[in-house]
Design brief:
This protein is an alpha/beta fold and 358 residues long. It is built from 15 helices and twelve strands. Helices cover 39% and strands 21% of the residues.
Length: 358
């Protein structure tokens, strides 16, 4: 009787880096068990990569073997069934799927090609889940409107703070409250680098550690120069306030020029240097910045190592914050699962975006 009630949920991955590989691995284990409790059997029907080929199989791809091939640097083409697929947009058009997980790398200046990927998938009547902050920062309003018109969902919980609930926190837990400002340490790589420098390690060695963990961007300059945190800030500000803030309009300074002496001086003053993203709504204008700041010990933003934190200032609930201890790819993969689970619970979509101008 149980098997008769279950249905297939066809999942396609666009992007197969650290997060995609971890999601696929967990989809064969605990994620499968969670989804089956909701009455669906997940089937990985497609994987598209930038460097390791494209594979589609309507019956289901062997996730473990695909992950092994990608980690070995070999092509996924041998797992493909059917006519060859030459591009990511062709993959979106042809893959037999119910939901597309868009987890390609970040382009901080245009949000492409991820935004085009999301738009194409919605137009093909696929739900879309992403951990890519680009589409959220550059086109959230349009993408949510497109999803609504087609009776679909575009979900993006993992775009800002891995698996820590950020968008869901505001949408579901702060009804009636207006977020007036926020501040956060949104880039775990820079937090790790600064923490390791405080312990006496060279910045280059700390960056290699972050890369080995899989938390650094494919291009680490996006972390060190503050681009990743800036795009996340824009994604969050645009979702909260219904605007169109662009990274080019944010005052941005990274940590590339922070020295060991700067870190030691901050520690002697009872503070920690962290890359802090700030935004404040001033009437109809958003004032935003990203840069290294001295954060007092005990402040939520002064976490250890790769910890991340975000604090909202609201009119009705005061300061409300969330904290992530030691971010890894597991948290980002979990955010994808959270959004996939949300697709299985039909409910009205929030306004576009969910906190419009006041």
């Amino acid at each position: 009787m149980r098997a008769a009630r279950e249905r297939r949920l066809r999942i396609a991955l666009l992007g197969f880096g650290h997060v995609g590989q971890r999601f696929a691995q967990l989809l064969d284990g605990p994620y499968r068990r969670v989804l089956r409790k909701r009455g669906v059997v997940p089937v990985l029907t497609g994987i598209a990569t930038a460097r390791h080929g494209i594979a589609i199989d309507a019956a289901g791809l062997p996730a473990a073997r695909c992950r092994t091939a990608a980690r070995a640097g070999t092509s996924l083409d041998r797992f493909h069934r059917g006519p060859a697929v030459r591009s990511s947009l062709e993959f979106i058009r042809k893959v037999p799927a119910d939901v597309l997980l868009e987890i390609t790398t970040l382009d901080p200046r245009r949000g492409q090609p991820a935004t085009s990927h999301v738009r194409a998938a919605l137009r093909r009547d696929l739900h879309v889940v992403t951990a890519n902050k680009g589409p959220v920062a550059f086109a959230l309003r349009d993408l949510l409107a497109l999803a609504r018109r087609r009776g679909l969902q575009f979900r993006h919980e993992g775009a800002v703070m891995d698996g820590t609930p950020v968008f869901n926190l505001v949408e579901r837990c702060l009804p009636g409250a207006e977020v007036r400002a926020f501040r956060g340490t949104l880039n775990s790589t820079t937090s790790l680098v600064l923490a390791r420098m405080e312990a006496g390690l060279a910045a280059s060695a700390a960056l290699r550690e972050a890369q080995a963990m899989g938390i650094a961007e494919a291009d680490p300059s996006l972390d060190l120069d503050g681009w990743d945190a800036t795009v996340k800030l824009c994604a969050l500000a645009n979702a909260l306030w219904g605007g169109a803030l662009r990274p080019s309009r944010v005052k941005r300074q990274g940590i590339r020029h922070v020295s060991a002496l700067d870190v030691r001086r901050a520690a002697r003053a009872g503070t920690r240097l962290r890359l802090v993203a700030r935004a404040e709504r001033r009437q109809r204008r958003v004032v935003a910045s990203v840069g290294p700041e001295r954060v007092p010990i005990g402040d939520p933003l002064a976490g250890d190592g790769r910890d991340s934190a975000l604090v909202f200032t609201t009119d009705l609930a005061g300061e409300v914050g969330v904290f992530e201890r030691g971010g890894t790819v597991d948290q980002t993969a979990y955010a994808l699962l959270v959004d996939v689970l949300a697709l299985l619970t039909p409910r009205p979509l929030p306004p576009s975006p969910f906190r419009g101008p006041r």
